[in-house]
Amino acid sequence: MSTWQVASDVEGRPTAKECPHLDHVRDVAPSTTEGCEDCLRVGGQWVHLRECLVCGHVGCCDSSPNRHASAHAGVTAGHELARSFEPGEDWAFCYADELFLLPAE
């Protein structure tokens, strides 16, 4: 299981803020590897994918028409953290605190 640390705020500025949600991270398996599970269900399209670090839900990013990853974070209590599910990307985001996260060193 990966551990994460705060890298910056949503504006990209370094911050000394802590993310109280990091203890919610679980060792999860993605709900699908085919794309955004909600878009697949309704016939939608996505731009980039995010995986919930609490349950493994794979949803589409905020640049996608339906913004399923942030919708999941907004309606599912305790699921504020998601990582990029794009190949070659290794970062995460806390929707509640608007903080970017990187793997802990």
Q: For this structure, what is the CATH class?
A: Alpha Beta
Full CATH superfamily name: Zinc/RING finger domain, C3HC4 (zinc finger)
The radius of gyration computed from the alpha-carbon positions, rounded to a whole number of angstroms, is 13 Å
The gross shape turns out to be globular
Gap between N and C termini = 13 Å
**Helical element count?**
2
Work out the number of β strands: 6
Physical arrangement of strands within the biggest beta sheet = 1-6-5-4-2-3
Percent range for β-strand residues: 15-25%
The structural class is alpha+beta
How many domains? The number is 1
**Architecture (CATH level 2) name:** 2-Layer Sandwich
CATH topology label: Herpes Virus-1
Structure explained in plain terms:
- It contains two helices and six strands; from the N terminus they run E-H-E-E-H-E-E-E.
- The protein is of the alpha+beta class and 105 residues long.
- It has a single domain (4-103), classed as Herpes Virus-1 (2-Layer Sandwich), CATH 3.30.40.
- A six-stranded antiparallel sheet has the order 1-6-5-4-2-3.
- It is globular, with a radius of gyration of 13 Å.
- The mean pLDDT is 95.
Provide a short characterization of the protein structure.
With 105 residues, the chain is α+β, with helices and mostly antiparallel strands.
